[in-house]
Amino acid sequence: MKRYHVYALGNALVDMEFEVEDEFLTRMNIQKGFMTLVDQLRQQELMAALSIPHGRKACGGSAANTIIAAQYFGGQCFYSCKVANDESGQFYLQDLAAAGVDTLNHVRETGITGSCLVFVTPDAERTMNTFLGITADVSSYEIDPNAIRDAQFAYLEGYLVTRPSARAAAIEVQNIARAQGVKVAMTFSDPSMVTYFKEGIHEMLGSGVDLLFCNQEEAMTWAETSSLTECITALKTVAQQFVITLGAQGALIYDGESLLEIPTYPAQPVDSNGAGDMFAGAYLYGITHGYTAAQAGHLASRSAAQVVSQFGPRLRPEQQAMLLKEWRADAKIF
Prior knowledge:
Largest sheet: 8 strands, mixed
Mean pLDDT: 92
CATH architecture: 3-Layer(aba) Sandwich
Radius of gyration: 18 Å
Distance between the termini: 21 Å
Number of helices: 13
Number of strands: 13
Structural class: alpha/beta
CATH superfamily: Ribokinase
Oligomer: single chain
């Protein structure tokens, strides 16, 4: 039996979340709804312009949020990442350990741990400005081949495409996984990744992945079409199975044979940050614990709805435990 349900490689970012008005984004020339890479000076400028000095803080990064979600449901996960020998790096590793996620205990290098300013507007849209810091240099050094071999899935975030060493590390993870019969899952992460780094995304996809996560905008940007039908046809060429999240319209899942329509669950949107990460984490938990694609999709949709109904990219462990218990009872599973 495999030790890990999911092994993941991703950026290590200390997330700081702030509630702002659209006027703030306009005034500071921030592109709404996207993840934008910035340098440290720009982050400091944005922090100085905020009316509140501190936001909600947590260890983050897209893949980290996903595997913590899977871990909180009862999975066992491993995360490969890179943090610096600074206060933020120490906080990050402590927060990751508190979630129960395993990681490598490398000696941390001198530098600055990456951080992400997450701006949430009244319409619940999330906008991110990210300073990668030392995580920009994540490389094969941070990979644990033994953990990959001992996992059911290797999971990669699309954000890794922005730096050559990170992209090469993602490809190496995929190669190790393939050689050991480990399935590979990947997320496009953000529309900007397939807009500005499409060639690199092609490299990361390689000969194709077992499971791909994306939202509708990412899928349409990837397929260069406004037709969802054409998106589905295009995605079938690079993924054995895939999930397209559709926001308030739920999700579409291709399980390798059939296209499944997954409904959305009622929610009063407050903060969309982390919804896609939660969907992926719940879905990966489901398919590694005996659920069908449809069952996992329903759990993932219900989980994402709960995330968007509160501030922050994750649920608390006790929230996920209760959600899973209630969902199993409603679905009459196990």
